[in-house]
């Protein structure tokens, strides 16, 4: 069976369950960047985020039979796995011990920002530089938030997930999501204004 | 209703998930309360800023790595962690630290061994959560390295 970009995630899942690696590959292309950003924001590390994304997709692939499209979308399911994997890494004893023993600071990879969706033009160097500065200011403030607040806010503001979807990914109630996002916003505004 | 309660609603308004009478009430409050109006402007600006600084992956290499692992996974047995920190802080460096600095601590619990290194704010968590001996931890590292 051929795979087409206009197939829905659910259609791709059905084909992937039937044994099509290529269709699962299309799902990988669609959701890698989002999964990466979620993992990166929790682990704070480019390399760990890459590892988490690989493991999360692998887990999703191996457990496709357990995916229930009536309960969640593939994206929210994948992000649930990604978040759990990221939290496992961050809280693992091995990681904390290694961080303790090693002064190694990971180099920041070259960041790129999406081009302006309105103009379709790639961003010029000056705008890229200005965005990088903004990114570092924002990144610093985001790191000061508890993981739950940061994740809820970014899932909403960067990934445009609905409150219901965020509740599914984080396994909490919608009213908790509302509260986490509100507190995250208040805190970031306070930090950036300082 | 207190200003903070209005601002909770304003956060929902910013996301476009507040409607009906609650939205009308919040909008009306914005016209008469400068503090909440400012909070609204700040939340809108924050949303824009977060969207602007949304990083994108510069190439397709991560997606390709994922696909390569998936096509390889059907023939592989078992499940291994590709834990990159292990590559950065090799087992030999840890052994060297042990041999030079804490050589006389073999067999002590990790808590005892680490008590002398009172330099990290993470230490409290480390001590509270675990009481494995340092040897156990190193054996664990070694197994992870060999198992890959
Ligand atoms: Zn007010």
What features would you describe in this structure?
Chain A is 69% helix and 1% strand. The radius of gyration of chain A is 18 Å and the shape is globular. Chain A has helices spanning 9-17, 21-43, 46-62, 74-91, 93-101, 125-143, 147-157, 163-170, 174-193, and one strand spanning 112-113. Chain B is mainly alpha-helical and 148 residues long. Chain B has two domains: 3-52, no CATH class; 85-148, no CATH class. Helices cover 68% and strands 1% of the residues of chain B. The longest helix of chain B has 19 residues, at 34-52. The chains are: A mainly alpha (194), B mainly alpha (148). Strand 1 (112-113) of chain A pairs antiparallel with strand 1 (55-56) of chain B. The structure holds zinc ion. Zinc ion is lined by residues 3, 6, 29, 33, 35-36 of chain B.
Shape call of chain B: elongated
Q: Structurally, how many domains make up the residues of chain B?
A: 2
Mean pLDDT of chain B, to the nearest integer, reads: 68
Number of helices of chain A: 9
Low-confidence stretches of chain B: 76-89, 109-148
**Strand share of the residues of chain A?**
under 5%
- What's the Cα radius of gyration of chain B? 27 Å
Largest sheet composition of chain A: none
Structural class of chain A: mainly alpha
Measured as a percent range, the helix fraction of chain A is 55-70%
The CATH homology group name of one domain in chain A: RNA polymerase sigma factor, region 2, helix turn helix motif
Task: Give the strand content of chain B.
Answer: under 5%
Give the largest interface: A-B, 61 and 58 residues
Approximate shape of chain A:
globular
Which terms summarize this structure?
heterodimer; A: 194 residues; mainly alpha; Rna Polymerase Sigma Factor, Chain: A; 9 helices; 69% helix; 1% strand; B: 148 residues; 2 domains; elongated; binds zinc ion
Summarize, please.
The complex is a heterodimer of chains A (194) and B (148). In chain A, 69% of the residues lie in helices and 1% in strands.
């Amino acid at each position: 069976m051929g795979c087409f970009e206009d197939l829905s995630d659910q259609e791709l899942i059905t084909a992937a369950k039937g044994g099509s690696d290529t269709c699962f590959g299309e799902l990988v292309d669609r959701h890698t960047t989002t999964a990466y950003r979620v993992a990166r924001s929790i682990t704070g590390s480019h390399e760990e985020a890459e590892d988490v994304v690989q493991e999360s997709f692998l887990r999703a692939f191996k457990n496709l039979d357990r995916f229930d499209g009536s309960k969640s979308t593939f994206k929210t399911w994948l992000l649930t796995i990604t978040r759990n994997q990221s939290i496992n890494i961050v809280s693992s004893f091995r990681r904390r011990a290694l961080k303790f023993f090693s002064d190694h600071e990971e180099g920041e990879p070259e960041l790129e920002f999406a081009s302006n969706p309105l103009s379709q033009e790639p961003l010029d160097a000056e705008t890229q530089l200005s965005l990088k500065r903004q990114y570092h200011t924002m990144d610093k403030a985001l790191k000061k938030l508890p993981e739950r607040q940061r994740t809820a806010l970014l899932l909403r503001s960067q990934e445009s997930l609905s409150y219901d979807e965020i509740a599914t990914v984080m396994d909490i109630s919608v009213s908790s999501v509302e509260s986490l996002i509100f507190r995250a916003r208040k805190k970031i505004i306070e930090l950036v204004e300082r | 209703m207190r200003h903070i309660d209005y601002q909770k609603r304003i956060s929902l308004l910013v996301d476009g998930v507040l409607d009906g009478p609650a939205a009308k009430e919040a909008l009306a409050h914005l016209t008469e309360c400068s503090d909440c109006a400012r909070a609204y402007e700040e939340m809108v600006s924050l949303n824009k800023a977060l969207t602007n600084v949304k990083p994108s992956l510069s190439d397709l290499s991560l997606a390709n790595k994922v696909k390569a692992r998936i096509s390889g996974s059907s023939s592989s047995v078992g499940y291994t962690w590709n834990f990159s920190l292990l590559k950065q802080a090799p087992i030999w460096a840890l052994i060297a630290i042990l041999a030079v600095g804490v050589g006389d601590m073999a067999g002590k619990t990790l808590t005892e061994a680490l008590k002398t290194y009172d330099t990290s704010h993470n230490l409290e968590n480390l001590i509270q959560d675990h009481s494995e001996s340092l040897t156990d931890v190193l054996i664990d590292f070694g197994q992870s390295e060999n198992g890959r």
